[in-house]
Write a structure and sequence with these properties.
The structure holds two protein chains of two kinds. Chain A is mainly β. Chain A is built from one helix and twelve strands. Chain A is elongated, with a radius of gyration of 18 Å. Chain B is mostly beta strands. In chain B, strands 30, 31, 32, 33, 34, 35 and 36 form a seven-stranded mixed sheet that branches. Chain B has a six-stranded mixed sheet with strand order 2-4-9-6-7-13, with no helix packed on it. A five-stranded mixed sheet of chain B has the order 1-3-10-5-8. In chain B, a hairpin with a 5-residue loop joins strand 25 and strand 26. The chains are: A mainly beta, B mainly beta. Chains A and B meet through loops of A and strand 34 and strand 35 of B.
Chain lengths: ~150, ~525
């Protein structure tokens, strides 16, 4: 019985390790490497000509804290970090590649996804995952789950 | 009254006419052939006429000692006349010189013909240009004067009869208005040339340097050339204009033999009144100085030490150097120190002769610096003079090893294809005004990094991070020893680009990259 339980746990660990927020065991308790992750993408892009390389700069509590990975607008782009237990304001700023200038440039404010923020609560031993989906109309929707 | 004064009026005129007839000697026709030549002597003046276009007046001069003679022939109104000089052997004459300025009515002169014991014929005739016609009413004067032979060229000193020139014993000569009928060189047919032979002793291990100076002569655009013993042109100086001198400086010779310095004038220009001076200097080559010719990859001078001196020996001279094992697998700093009037460009080529760097940051008197260069096996260093008409501009090329505890960037890394891999810390330099240094970070999947950059003390930089393709994600500028820290994600790979805003060729920047775990 113990062998079966250990095997199941091992498979679970392997399965979850393949995700961006890997976990480790510590005296039987699950600890997340990062307690907050956000994934952002556009949901209604269906032509390569409109699918630009992009990333989001992430502000936490109004302080620049990093950026997501780069990827096509239609792809998920990831950001992960450890935050203190508290309520936090997460703001996103979209940048896209300007090939004529060989650099990424910030989208004009009018083109930024709206709303560009979400409040989250970080709790001890739990991980909060946010997914942001934006569309060509500029409307963004946020979904959050905490494990 | 008038009859009493008449003798006093006529006497001076009669005396004058008698005097002239005594000092000048009229030619005696027929003297159209060598055998019929009128006998003449140096120090006297002879008169004659070109009766018709076909008339030839021959004068025979017998010489009993080595001397140099000047031959002056006055002009004949409306006639383009000339004279030829022959050296006689029995009844046969060998043409030494044809003197013809190709103009009507003008005099002809030959300033310094070297003659030794024997018989010479001076033949006055119509020139080659213009319709041949005479002028029986106008007398010409033919005057011959002689002088000693010291320190003077011995005409004819053509290719077949060069004069010997010794180091530190200058010789003088004239740009004569002569045509050398024996000069069949395709490019310079009939060009009057003065040849000087130089005997040199040298070998690969004991080369000598030859310098030749030719003074300027008014109205003459001269050319100075150096030929090897096989009559191959090996050096030429033709940088100065009319009235200015020419020089061949510190030309390296590695093989014993007879070499030839050749003096000539462009377009048959001449000056009978002013002498040129040709001077020869021969020195043992010093290891610390360049050895010309080194104008190509093939004859690049090997740099065995840390310093070599060079000269811009001619307008836009290019000097090639090749580093030796002494500098292999080392990071070095290279400085090209220009003399006050020297302005040079330093170019570096790799072993495959591919251009790596070109440095021309300063002007005359400045220092061109490559603050750091990694020499894998060897490189070529090429110094090109930007200074025109300053043939003596000198420079010193200096190579010193960089002793650094931390690794140093490897130039060239100006493109992402040439990016240096970075795993921790590296020292970099702002090599040129527009220098760009690419560094690449690679990993298996995706990692966060902390990037620290400290600007050089007296310079300014722009740092950029990029995505996998090299597209810039963010940029920051910093200067004068300032520090900056950036956090960045690199997915499999990414680049850090350091662009020079203000170069600091003496101080490095420090770049640190650490993974955030």
């Amino acid at each position: 019985m113990r062998f079966v339980a250990a095997s199941v746990l091992g498979v679970l660990i392997l399965f979850t390790a393949c995700k961006t927020d890997s976990v480790i065991t510590d005296h039987g308790n699950i600890q997340y490497k990062y307690n907050f992750t956000i994934t952002a993408s556009d949901f209604d892009i269906n032509h390569p000509d409109k699918d630009r390389l992009s990333f989001y700069v992430v502000y936490i509590d109004k302080v620049e804290s990093g950026r997501t990975t780069t990827g096509l607008e239609s792809q998920d782009k990831y950001f992960e970090i450890n935050l203190t237990e508290n309520k936090h304001l997460i703001t996103l700023e979209k940048w896209v590649l300007d090939k004529t200038r060989d650099k990424y440039v910030k989208l004009n404010n009018i083109e930024q996804p709206k709303p560009d923020f979400i409040y989250i609560i970080i709790q001890t031993g739990r991980q909060t995952r946010v997914k942001m989906k934006s569309g060509s109309t500029g409307v963004a929707t946020y979904t959050s789950e905490t494990n | 009254m008038i009859s009493k004064l008449l003798p006093f009026i006529l006497m001076p005129a009669i005396l004058s006419i008698i005097s002239c007839n005594f000092s000048k000697h009229k030619e005696t026709e027929p003297n159209n052939t060598f055998s019929g030549a009128n006998i003449i002597e140096a120090g006297r003046t002879y008169t004659g006429t070109i009766e018709t276009g076909k008339d030839i007046d021959c004068f025979a001069l017998t010489v009993d000692r080595d001397s140099i003679i000047r031959i002056e022939l006055t002009g004949i109104k409306g006639v383009n006349h000339a004279f030829s000089i022959y050296m006689m052997t029995g009844d046969t004459g060998t043409l030494l010189k044809l003197v013809d300025d190709n103009r009507k009515s003008s005099p002809e002169n030959f300033a310094n013909l070297f003659v030794s014991r024997g018989k010479y014929i001076i033949s006055v005739h119509h020139g080659e240009r213009d319709d041949k016609r005479g002028n029986p009413d106008t007398l010409y004067d033919l005057k011959i004067t002689d002088s000693d032979t010291s320190a003077e060229e011995h005409e004819p000193n053509d290719k077949e009869k060069p004069n010997v020139i010794q180091p530190d014993y200058p010789l003088t000569g004239f740009f004569s208005p002569a045509r050398d009928r024996n000069n069949d060189d395709v490019k310079n047919q009939f060009r009057e040339e003065d040849w000087y032979s130089i005997e040199l002793t040298a070998d690969e291990n004991n080369p000598v340097t030859v310098s030749i100076d030719l003074s300027g002569v008014s109205g003459v655009d001269s050319v100075l050339e150096l030929y090897d013993s096989q009559f191959n042109l090996i050096a030429q100086s033709d940088s100065a204009s009319h009235g200015s001198g020419e020089s061949i400086n510190d030309y390296g010779i590695k093989k014993s033999g007879i070499y030839y310095a050749v003096v000539s004038a462009k377009n048959f220009q001449y000056n009978n009144n002013s002498r040129y001076t040709i001077s020869l200097f021969v020195n043992l080559h010093s290891q610390g100085t360049e050895l010309e010719p080194n104008n190509s990859f093939e004859n690049a001078n090997t740099l065995t030490g840390n310093e070599i001196k060079g000269k811009a020996n001619s307008k836009l001279d290019t000097d090639y150097f090749i580093t030796s094992q002494v500098h292999a697998k080392k990071n070095v700093r290279i400085e090209l120190l220009n003399d006050e009037t020297s302005d040079t460009t330093l170019t570096v080529y790799d072993a495959a002769k591919k251009k790596l760097l070109e440095i021309n940051n300063t002007g005359p008197g400045g220092v061109e610096t490559i603050p750091a260069l990694y020499i894998k096996d060897y490189v070529y260093l090429v110094v090109t003079s930007n200074t025109e008409n300053k043939p003596d501009s000198g420079y010193t090329l200096n190579i010193s090893e960089i002793n650094s505890y931390n690794p140093v960037e490897i130039e060239p890394n100006n493109r992402k294809e040439d990016a240096n891999a970075i795993t921790n810390i590296v020292k970099g330099y702002t090599t040129t005004n527009g220098d760009i240094d690419y560094f690449i970070i690679t990993n298996d999947y995706r990692k966060n990094y902390r990037i620290e950059l400290r600007a050089p003390v007296n310079g300014a930089l722009k740092i950029s991070t990029t995505d996998q393709s090299g597209y810039i994600i963010k940029s920051k500028e910093l200067s004068n020893g300032e520090n900056i820290t950036l956090n960045e994600i690199f997915e499999k790979k990414g680049y850090i680009i350091i662009e020079t805003v203000t170069p600091d060729l003496d101080n490095a920047y420090d770049l640190l990259v650490e993974e955030i775990r």
